[in-house]
# Entry
Amino acid sequence: QLQLVESGGGLVQPGGSLRLSCAASGFALGYFPIGWFRQAPGREREGISCISKSGGSTNYDGSVKGRFTIFRDNAKNTVLLQMNSLKPEDTAVYYCAVVPATVQGSCLMIKRSIRDSWGQGTQVTVSP
# Structure
C-alpha cells in the first residue's frame, strides 16, 4: 500500500497563498500520476487537480483552474500544489493520492483504487 503524507496547510486570508506538499516514503512518486483532493465540511471529497507521471500533463477542476498549480519536485520526492488567490470556499481538508493514468499519458482526478487509503490530510482555512 502506498502511503502519502500531506502538509503545508494553515490559516490564510482571502487572496493569500499556500503551498501544499505531498510526500512519499519508501517509493518514488515519479512512478505514479498524483492527484490532489479536498473535502469541505458537509461535502463529499472532490478531485481538484492531477499531474501525470512525467509531469508533462496536468488537469484542474474549474473551481481552481487559473489559481492553483500542481507540479513535481522529484529531487525531494514530492508533488506540490501552489494555491494562489485563495477564497473562503477553498476551505477544506486537502489530500493527495495516486490516480489513474490515461492512455494518452495524462491523469484522472479520481483515486486509483478503493484499496488505497487516504492520508490524514492537511487543513486549509481561508478566512479574514
